[in-house]
């Protein structure tokens, strides 16, 4: 297995954010002063109930946003715990804004938050705990 200096490069086949995974979401995030931001419009391939995104997809998007925040900091980490709160359904065919930021770091655990919003309304949010991935 190739050892990458940039953790994001390792994820190029990720189902959520991999640039080389043409069957995946290919989420892209950019740094902001407070964290990262991305934009995505989901199509019917990601449907749960009619017209809305499946819950596992929503959780995966939130997890990916937090992971990409860590990538921006050069940190390779694994999700240890993920708590998702759905406030409203996440619609298909609408441009969503996805954000993530660091809440705190306790010892070697990074605690992050993420949100999926539509027109400044929070649809779903998450808090994730991430632990550094050990060398392989």
Annotation, overall tally of beta strands: 6
Number of helices, counting only DSSP H or I runs of 4 residues or more? 2
Cα-atom radius of gyration: 14 Å
Helix content: 10-25%
Main β sheet profile = 6 strands, antiparallel
The proportion of strand residues reads 35-45%
CATH-defined topology:
Thiol Ester Dehydrase, Chain A
Mean pLDDT: 92
The ordered string of helix (H) and strand (E) elements is HEEHEEEE
Identify the CATH homologous superfamily. Hotdog Thioesterase
CATH architecture group name:
Roll
Explain this structure.
This protein is of the alpha+beta class and 136 residues long. It has one domain (7-132): Roll (Thiol Ester Dehydrase, Chain A), CATH 3.10.129.10. 16% of the residues lie in helices and 38% in strands. The chain has two helices and six strands. The chain has a six-stranded antiparallel sheet, covered by helices on one side. Strand 4 (95-106) and strand 5 (109-118) form a beta hairpin. The model has no long low-confidence stretch (mean pLDDT 92).
Short structural summary:
With 136 residues, the protein is of the alpha+beta class. The chain has two helices and six strands.
Write the layout of secondary structure elements.
Layout (H helix, E strand, L loop, with lengths): L6 H4 L19 E2 L4 E6 L13 H18 L4 E10 L8 E12 L2 E10 L2 E12 L4
Antiparallel strand pairs: 1-2, 2-4, 3-6, 4-5, 5-6
